[in-house]
Task: inverse folding
């Protein structure tokens, strides 16, 4: 009913699930997907309204939980694939674009509407800027949604797949990675990419 809005409970449980899968030696690739017609509408707005009356420290702790989830996905040793069957907005867009690969249906919309609601997209901005560079600025400042096709063109997501084939395609690609790639090499490559992005050439080399 809330379009997979990110409640505090869901954020904590997702973080725990990713950590558990990372520790599971039988897992090579993780697929993140959702039920219903929307991938994720972002933070639960009812929760946000409640938080406005809470002390600053409570709000900070809530933000730290979301930051922890994003950081967990971004730095996880296992490859993460997002299967986006519908709109991915705000915090949901963050999860979709932080994943190593994102397969989405052409009808999906992607966007960060925080500024339209009087919020600053501080956490997602850090990760989005790292992924698409200067193209993040108009997206975050306008708060407007973009089509899945444009999201592919600017490097936010990996591939468009028709709705009736997205489940099969995502699973097929996950199996491809499992059967053709070394899990240790993929883990070290993720670590390498994370470490070199803020280094100068000499340090990175």
Result:
């Amino acid at each position: 009913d809330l379009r997979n809005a990110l409640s505090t409970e869901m954020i904590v449980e997702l973080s725990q699930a990713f950590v558990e899968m990372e520790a599971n030696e039988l897992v090579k690739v993780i697929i993140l997907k959702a039920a219903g017609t929307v991938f994720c509408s972002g933070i639960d707005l009812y929760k946000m309204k409640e938080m406005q009356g809470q002390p600053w420290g409570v709000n900070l702790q809530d933000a730290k939980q979301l930051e922890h989830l994003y950081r967990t996905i971004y730095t996880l040793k296992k490859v993460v694939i997002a299967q986006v069957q519908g709109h991915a907005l705000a915090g949901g867009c963050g999860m979709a674009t932080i994943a190593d690969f994102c397969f989405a249906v052409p009808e999906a919309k992607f966007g960060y509407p925080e500024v339209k609601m009087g919020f600053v997209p501080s956490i997602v901005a850090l990760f989005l800027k790292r992924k698409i560079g200067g193209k993040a600025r108009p997206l975050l400042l306008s708060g407007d949604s973009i089509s899945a096709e444009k999201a592919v063109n600017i490097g936010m997501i990996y591939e468009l797949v028709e709705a009736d084939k997205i489940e099969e395609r995502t699973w097929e690609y996950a199996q491809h990675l499992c059967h053709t790639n070394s899990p240790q090499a993929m883990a070290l490559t993720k670590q390498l990419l994370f470490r070199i992005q803020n280094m100068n050439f000499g340090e990175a080399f």
Q: What stands out?
A: The two ends are 50 Å apart (CA to CA). The chain has ten helices and seven strands. The beta strands are 29-33, 79-84, 88-89, 101-104, 109-111, 146-147, 159-160.
